[in-house]
Design a protein that fits this description.
The protein has 70 residues and is mainly α. The chain has helices spanning 9-22, 28-36, 43-46, 50-69. The protein starts with 8 loop residues before the first helix and ends with a helix.
Length: 70
Amino acid sequence: MSQVEPNIAKELLETIEKAWAKYPDLRLTQLLVNVIKPSESCSEIYYVEDSKLVKLLNELTAEELETSDV
């Protein structure tokens, strides 16, 4: 997890879950962009469908598993 805040992962995921439950019509990426309020538009992130995010995260973790097996 984060080297800056190594013990925050569980709390972060629980907090995201609570916020997302309050705004279930938002995609996760929309929720995050709305909360972070970046100074520049993030349309590439904002419009990512949750199913695509799941796919991309699964690909990322699969890649990490492959490289750690080497």
